[in-house]
Amino acid sequence: MRSTASYLTVMSGLMAAFVLLGFAPSALAAAGGPPAWLRYAAQSAAMHLSDGTIPTTISYIGPNARFPRVVLTGSFVCNDCSRPSNSTPAPSGTVAELRFDGETHQSRDFALCKTRAQCDASLCSFGACTRAQDALDAAFSALDARLKGIPGDPDPFSHRSGTFSCHIHYPVREMRYLIGSCTTAVRLQASRAATVSFVERWRPREYEHRRWVRLPTRTHTWRVVETEDGWQARISSSGSPAPQLPVGVKR
User: Fold this and answer.
1) What does the pLDDT read at residue 27?
2) CA within 20 to 30 Å of 11's CA: 44, 145, 216, 245, which one?
């Protein structure tokens, strides 16, 4: 069973309480091993999910990576997970896996399963949490930061690799947009670094001689180059001015 919004909301609340109580990562940091905030998140999840019948073991995958994971093994019941009705038993399992954002410390993905293999295969939105998925998520964080403050909905890209029809919104309050095609592409390099490209294509219209005329296809590209661990991302842009940016704004 994949993550549910209700459970992720509970985890976010627990992490907020962690900060408000003054348990800053620097204050609890220990030499080596997972950072303090991740240990606390893992222990909180274990206490919240365990039914108390057997001890819970905790293991970490890439604890200092951009998107670390926590694997809990024991006996669990997720009372906060969504279900068809109150009479439906709460989801249960013997393995719980969580994926966090190392920058925000928020829980991004959650799976509760009968086996570790089931959790590994379904944890992320489109299946397993691969290196490519980590690179993609880090790139979207960089793109969102680049487009922060732009009115409307400036990000038209799908959170999976491929080319899809998309709505490229103008930077106005009204829901005005162009229909174009948007490509999300991930390239993993031999050095374990990664390059993620966001490419949008559209055909603008121009009013000439009392009629609308389609102009040639235009293209804009954002390219994100990441280090192996995903902690450093350099973003650049090229091509025609992006329709979702105000006139004169370059990002």
Assistant:
1) 34
2) 145
Give the side-chain half-sphere CA count within 13 A for 31.
0
- State the distance between the two ends of the chain, measured CA to CA, in whole angstroms: 39
Q: What is the pLDDT of residue 92?
A: 94
Please state, in angstroms and as integers, the Cα–Cα distance from residue 24 to each residue in 35, 36, 59, 104, following that order: 11, 8, 22, 13
What b/e string do you get for 85-112 counting C-beta neighbours within 10 Å, with b at 16 or more?
A: eeeeeebbbebbbbbbbbeebebbbbbb
d(CA 168, CA 176) in angstroms, rounded, equals 9
Please give the average pLDDT of every successive group of 10 residues along the chain, which has 251 residues: 53 45 37 87 96 96 94 95 85 96 95 95 89 93 94 90 94 80 94 92 86 91 91 93 90 85
One DSSP character per residue, the chain reads ----HHHHHHHHHHHHHHHHTT--HHHH--SSSS-HHHHHHHHHHHHHHB-SSS--EEEEESTTSSS-EEEEEEEEE-TTS--SSTTSPPPEEEEEEEEE-TTT--EEEEEEESSHHHHHHHSBTTBS--HHHHHHHHHHHHHHHHTTT-SS------SSSEEEEEEEE-SSSS--EEEEEEEEEEEE-TTS-EEEEEEEEE--EEEETTEEEEPPPEEEEEEEEE-TTSS-EEEEEEESPPTTSPTT---
Q: What is the pLDDT of residue 8?
A: 55
Domain layout of the chain by residue ranges: 5-129, 134-239
Per-residue model confidence (pLDDT) at position 251: 85
Give the pLDDT of residue 28. 37
